[in-house]
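Collaborator request, handled under Task 6.
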Amino acid sequence: MTDTPLPLIIDCDPGIDDAVMLMMAFLSPHLDVQAITTVAGNVPLAFTSRNARMICERMNRTNIPVHAGCPRPMVRKMVTAEDFHGESGIAGMDVFEPEVPLAPGHAVDVLIEKLSAPPEGGYTVILSGPMTNLAAALIMAPQIAQGIRELVVMGGADTAGGNITPSAEFNIYADPLAAAIVFDAGLPTVVLALDATHQVRAEQVRVDRIRALPGRHAELMADLLDAANRLELRWRPGMQVPMHDPSTVGWVLAPHLFETKRCRVSVVTRPGKDFGRTKVKDSARGPHRWVTVADADGFFALVEDLLKAPA
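Structure tokens returned to the collaborator:
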């Protein structure tokens, strides 16, 4: 990566794995996180907005504004995932009320404002939850697409099958219409679907190596990963938790750890058994890059390097 930090906007729904993702982004000197926007997803909006600010405070990054966004999907009834993230949405961390309040401005308005006046080269935007905020922004101001250098999405599934229905991944299922709007916009997009994230799991030996590192950041990350594994084992005995959302920052910092194929992604929005399914059509000229292979050892080596770096 270049010496100039990459301008980054993170739209998320913390969530344990979102918390690990945010920690990685904050620890890297190569990333300039300019705004965090939150959406209802893993837990309701009030909790995702609080949890994002909790992470900022624990990481001494309260200078980064957190803007609350859409409290529900565009059309469908809201679904959440407390069973996988704990009632607070962030098992593994003691809940507290952050000192710094939410930043003023709705997340959709903030996305429009920032993407309408991007830095040279545009913003990299990470979407690690339902895509409601960006979809609404694209409807209101379609010209903001020009301000996005690259969109990095955690969502979808193809060969891996779904994690909330047999064919649908949670982030897409939570707001399929929003996902369809974003994918149909034709933005340069990297998609880290379950096909890739299931290859990167927090095996205990990897968590133990993180816990053995000095410093409070390593302790917090190990606490989060252990909590995530305990929740995962309740539902999938013998399986360690996949690094869904953290893989997005992994891609931004170290794309050489991943293999992709060019394609065009669409979303099933009609009711039925395939509701929320992502369909992947190979296309040499497609705007989307579907991650097919992820290097788990390389990913966790990256995490350890971030934790070892001077604070």
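The cover message to the collaborator said: "The chain has one domain: 6-308. The first strand starts at residue 6 and ends at 12. Please let us know whether this matches your experimental observations."
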